[in-house]
Amino acid sequence: MTVEQLKKIKIRRAVKQDLSTLLPLMVKYMNDFYESPRNDEKMLKHILNEIYNDPTKGLQFVAEKDNKIIGFATLYFTNNAADVKKIAVLHDLFVIPECRKEKVEQTLFKTCLTFIRENDFLYMVWETAQGNQKFYK
Hints:
The structure is a single chain. This protein is α+β, with helices and mostly antiparallel strands. 35% of the residues lie in helices and 31% in strands. Helix 2 crosses helix 3 (41-53). It is globular and about 40 Å long.
């Protein structure tokens, strides 16, 4: 990917107004990477509203190209009592198939790492389907 192409990709924090665009993308992600179909939009909507309404529970980054959301990464937050520090769980990372060769996955992943480092998290754990991890190999 050229520098010019990378400039066309914008990573930003998701907001509540992104919900209607993100829901179909999240359902696609769940159905593509997990064995059993998981298309419960009502539950996904509830989870996303929870992190949009309470930033202590998590956050979501979206990748945009030409003002269209093409991917997302979702972090959920918890605590490590032994070290009295926050930890982040990167549970969802997805980019639409036609944009997967543009390093968007790596950019979303690095954005999550930067966020946890800049916000004094102890560490980040990545929990996802094994097939979703091949972008960095």
